[in-house]
Design brief:
Layout: H1 8-16, H2 33-45, H3 55-70, H4 84-97
Length: about 100
């Protein structure tokens, strides 16, 4: 709902790709529950447990958390409590066996 989504440059860019803007209702976090859940997980598992001396240090730690841990190693309930890497490997092994 931020002003950046109302900017003419933003509107022109999404129009260029035949996209349409989508905004949730004001003050309703349930409109985007998956990403709200992710932000809560990120804060609980990383941000609240340490202090960052600089923005760059925080940016690097968050990037590593997402790219190395969350997207590859952290077990996910929606993946039957497997890591994304293990789930993907098992999926392809099952495809080969089938």
């Amino acid at each position: 709902r931020g002003s950046q989504y109302c900017a003419l440059a933003y509107q022109a860019l999404i129009g260029q790709f035949d996209m349409r803007p989508s905004m949730s209702r004001r003050g309703n976090c349930y409109d985007n529950a998956p990403i709200e859940s992710f932000w809560g997980t990120l804060k609980n598992e990383l941000v609240y447990h340490q202090r960052f001396a600089t923005r760059e240090q925080a940016r690097l730690a968050i990037s590593e958390y997402i790219e190395i841990f969350y997207n590859r190693q952290r077990t996910q309930a929606r993946l039957n409590y497997q890591s994304p890497v293990a789930f993907t490997q098992r999926f392809y092994l099952n495809q080969i066996a089938a």
